[in-house]
């Protein structure tokens, strides 16, 4: 699994002009799933991301967690995180999981974040979405379960 996590002041997602999810301060997580991903990797990634301390404390040091700031999470499915641009000018996405694998793992990731007590909003899996965010910092991390 691969995630691009951005610390945001607020973020939202719309599908066909309809607001589907909106959060205040917290994490915007773009989530990509590979064919060999499983529930163990899903749990590992959720544990890692939800425990990161990347918010400023009273001294301006990145020392506070999502819990500490009462943060929220917006999770957006993002198969393009597994895009391969090595050949030609059009990326191929064979490294991304098919929906029958990706949807249950995406839903499991969201569920795990909710089980940790966070308010979690989502987009719509497989839909064309417009994501709006106000990046805080900006502070963006790429986290891959193969590196954890």
What key attributes describe this structure?
8 strands, globular, alpha/beta, 148 residues, two-stranded antiparallel ribbon
Structure write-up:
The chain has helices spanning 39-51, 66-69, 99-115; strands spanning 2-15, 18-23, 26-32, 53-56, 62-65, 72-77, 120-122, 129-144. By secondary structure, the chain is α/β, with parallel strands linked by helices. Strands 1, 2, 3, 6, 7 and 8 form a six-stranded mixed β-sheet that branches. Strand 1 (2-15) and strand 2 (18-23) form a beta hairpin. Helix 1 (39-51) packs across helix 3. 34% of the residues are buried.
- Output the number of helix runs: 3
Distance between the termini: 10 Å
Shape: globular
Report the portion of residues in β strands. 35-45%
- List unreliable stretches of 5+ residues: none
Topology, number of strands: 8
Question: The biggest beta sheet, please?
Answer: 6 strands, mixed
Work out the helicity level: 10-25%
Order of helices and strands: EEEHEEHEHEE
Structural class, judged by helices and strands?
Answer: alpha/beta
Q: Please tell me how large the radius of gyration is.
A: 15 Å
Averaged pLDDT, please? Answer: 97
């Amino acid at each position: 699994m691969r995630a691009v996590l951005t610390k945001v002041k607020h973020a939202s997602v719309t599908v066909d002009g309809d607001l589907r999810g909106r959060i205040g301060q917290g994490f915007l997580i773009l989530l990509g799933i590979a064919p060999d991903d499983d529930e163990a990797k899903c749990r590992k990634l959720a544990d890692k991301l939800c425990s990161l301390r990347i918010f400023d404390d009273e001294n301006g040091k990145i020392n506070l967690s999502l819990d500490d700031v009462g943060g929220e999470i917006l999770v957006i499915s993002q198969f393009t995180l597994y895009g391969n641009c090595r050949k030609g000018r059009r990326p191929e996405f064979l490294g991304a999981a098919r929906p029958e694998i990706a949807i249950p793992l995406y839903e499991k990731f969201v569920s795990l974040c909710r089980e940790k007590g966070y308010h979690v909003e989502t987009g719509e899996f497989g839909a064309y979405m417009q994501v709006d965010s106000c990046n805080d910092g900006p502070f963006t991390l790429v986290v891959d379960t193969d590196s954890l």
